[in-house]
Amino acid sequence: MYSNPFFAVINHQPACRPPVWMMRQAGRVLPRYRHLTQTHPFRSIMADAKLAAEVTLMPIADMGMDAAILFSDILVIPEALGVEVEWTSEGPAFPRPLIGVEHPAAVLSFNASHLNHVADTLDEIRRQKVGDTPVIGFCGGPLTCLCYMLAGRDRSLQFTEVVRYLYTHREESLQLFEALTSASETYVHLQAQHGIDAFQIFESFASVIPAELYQEVVLPFVRRITAAARQHGLPVIFFPKGFGAGIQMLSLEDCDFVSIDWQTPLSAARGLVDAKLGLQGNMDPRVLFAPQAVIEKQLRTYAQFFSQHPDYIFNLGHGLHKDTPLENVQFVTEWFKHM
To answer: What are phi and psi of 313, to 5 degrees?
Structure first.
């Protein structure tokens, strides 16, 4: 019997309530994190094991979350492959995206030592954490990383140039997917060896191509990342944001839990997703700006869903917005603990 509900549910065991954690919980809304960023830029926090571990564990102490997620970024893999990433106050920037390079995979060279700071952070988390707090590791999905590497930031989030490239440069795209996936496999092994308890794949831009194309071209690479995690006995959560009805294509080969975005009703998702797979998500993060009576009404629907489908982890349908009132996040975690 697991005392922590996240451990119970992720392992398909009974729990008295749904476990609670939120994407982008490490930082953003926390006053202690904001105070830290006044003297330490994002990249320097990420590179400092003690600071990164502290931020990873802040949501446990300050917001009552049931699980911690490693404080890092999906773009450490493109960076380890030699793609230049500039970490600005407005987010990452790519001075030299690869879309204009004739053979982009040929200019990549994976340097695993660029990931050593993550191993150090995970070791430090184990030293700092109290009790049986689960730690979730993660990486970016192959398509999401490819979008950033080829086009840099696209404020429209449509990545039209990248999609056109996929259709017109299939072989080059497959070579890039291979490089990303091989590096991600190494990254999974590193995180597993340094004590994570579960792994999440963030495919934030699953919506930019048709689901059938994703299934044909990208999903085989996702399965490799999942297989790497399972070599260490780690359960895998897959978050294909905007995948829509494509979630019915997913199976145990792809993941153990599917994280559902806020565009897809949770009850509809349960009808589409293979019954062997658990669900995570899907509350609209913007609900957390509403009065607490409105938030509570939403939470009751998730509690009812859990009572009927106990393979469920409460989370948001995307990451926390940075201006979310901290007291509303705390209200959510306390509500579930006393439901």
So the answer is: -115, 125
* 235 contacts: CB under 8 Å, gap ≥ 6: 10, 11, 198, 199, 229, 256, 257
Type of residue numbered 271: G
Cα 52 to Cα 11, 70, 86, 151, 223, distances in angstroms: 27, 8, 19, 28, 29
Domains and CATH numbers, the chain: 18-337 (3.20.20.210)
Q: Count CB-CB contacts under 10 A for residue 128.
A: 14
Which of these ranges, 73-87, 143-157, 176-190, 296-310, has the smallest mean pLDDT?
143-157
Asked whether residue 156 carries a pLDDT value surpassing 80, the answer given is: no
The band of 37, judged by pLDDT with boundaries at 50, 70 and 90, is: very high
Q: What whole-number distance in Å separates Cα of residue 282 and Cα of residue 263?
A: 8
CA–CA separation, 160 and 169 (whole Å): 14
Q: Return the pLDDT at 136.
A: 98
Beta carbons of 196 and 137 less than 8 angstroms apart: yes
Sequence-distant (≥ 6) Cβ neighbours of residue 130 within 8 angstroms: none
Please tell me the pTM assigned to this model.
0.97
